[in-house]
């Protein structure tokens, strides 16, 4: 049974304090039932060194007692415990049985204690990663590096709409019904700009904008696409066709893309985020999601003669999202990282904090935050998904994170 | 200039989204034209109790063991003569001090005691655990270390004994996270409390009272079609295969 001392030592590692870990196995002959608050064996007889190995999240602690251990002859081994020192020291784990093993010169004994580090308190929005668990397990061997930095990241960005771009990789209209796109710098969801759209042609009900990206983007992990659009007036919304009024296309070429169409009833006046599960999109051609370089927005009015004032339709921030996963080793689209200031440990909980100041990490929105143990790359311990935080020269983001260590199934 | 009202509105918007355990909120304005956003997040990692295994090995034989009072009697015992595993004085392959083992090494470790903390058996499918728990003679399902147990029609997972209790087991709950099982209806779950003499069908995550009591717990799962028990869920969080049992004292 894991002792309450063990989580404290793990918390010390997280806080980058001096800590201890199991190095020895003690055996004794007491059958007194173990508790989490034991400080020693009931009646210790002998102590042997431990071998620690690990596999996935499982720690394997093994010790062999050879037949030449004469101090145990005629003794019955009923209890075992792990310690940090060859005598006295801190108890990490103790177990006792009623029967035990009678030891003599013709017997050798092997003790194997399994233990695991568990992240089942995590969920889809906040995850203590396998990478972090591995560092904790390494700490049980006196290795591992403690958390030292906090990083912030964004969705996978296809286009920030801060600029039209340079031909042939620029936003263009259909040269028919759509107005010529330009940049709006005052009505923005992300970054420094958005793209104004409208309809001035009366020969077609369909009007569209497209962009061929300058370089391909791997979106093979993406499970949701997002785009923010603004429909300025209710009269503009009313002009859109009732069904299939707005279609988004994302793909590897203008003939190989996934698309999804929104009906008028699912659109609103004002800014809104269009949220498209990839699983609901339809393929045209053979889109290669590992090489995205085509974005398109197609809209249709009820009548070809309908017009919409340029700038009464605005789009911003084409992006993709995929779920956090315990196997993540990097933060989604990391843009900025800063050091942790003085971790504060209280018992088994460690408070860490870092700040992205007014001049730092600007012109991005931030949705993901992660804890690392290095100023670049390193091991990702913990990550969480937050709101899409707008970051600019008039805003700063402070992340206050508490990492706690508990014994599974206990409320300590 | 941002107003307190706008800050409150923003705070309300953020709070209503509720994506993170703990809280996520904005602070009050510290300067007239700047925002300070504070993210507050909490996470807990657990140290999980798992079984302890105590094994013994008999070294009985006629091999001289230095320092052993029973097998170390000069002129009564001989040096080891098993050339690949024993310490054989003067043998270049088996006489390496500090490396070669003493004794005949003819016996292997046998499990004597299994201690499940709080009488909860937990299994995370690591190969080190599988070595102890999977009854390779009766298991036909595919156990992939730290990953899954895959079944096709008619295949079986059966374990070796998972407990060596002093008292008889009275009841147990067989726990597997249902969301980690593909085609669960194709699996039938059994527990034995008497070391495999009698298997009793059980329902996952439901208390089962043993009819045939005993001290040694064994799992058996039989497939009537394809099915998989995965260790991880869709975001990679593990759930152990577990049995929470009680004994009659």
Summed up:
The complex is a heterodimer of chains A (412) and B (249). Chain A has 412 residues and is mostly beta strands. Chain A has helices at residues 5-14, 130-139, 234-239, and strands at residues 24-28, 44-49, 51-55, 58-65, 76-83, 91-102, 107-118, 126-128, 149-153, 156-159, 172-173, 182-184, 194-199, 206-217, 224-231, 246-253, 256-262, 270-277, 282-284, 292-300, 308-321, 334-339, 344-346, 349-356, 365-372, 380-390, 395-407.
Q: In which range does the helix fraction of chain A lie? A: under 10%
End-to-end separation of chain A: 14 Å
Overall structural domain count of chain A: 3
CATH class of the largest domain in chain A: Mainly Beta
**CATH class designation of one domain in chain B:** Mainly Beta
Q: Structural class of chain B, please?
A: mainly beta
CATH T-level topology of one domain in chain B: Jelly Rolls
Number of beta-strand segments of chain B: 15
Order of helices and strands of chain A: HEEEEEEEEHEEEEEEEHEEEEEEEEEEEE
Oligomer: heterodimer
Give the overall form of chain A: elongated
| Rg from alpha-carbon coordinates of chain A | 30 Å
Kindly state the mean pLDDT of chain B as a whole number?
80
Q: What is the strand content of chain B?
A: 35-45%
Biggest sheet details of chain B: 4 strands, antiparallel
Which pair of protein chains has the largest interface, and what are the residue counts?
Answer: A-B, 82 and 71 residues
Features:
heterodimer; A: 412 residues; mainly beta; Jelly Rolls; 3 domains; 27 strands; B: 249 residues; four-stranded antiparallel β-sheet; 2 helices; globular
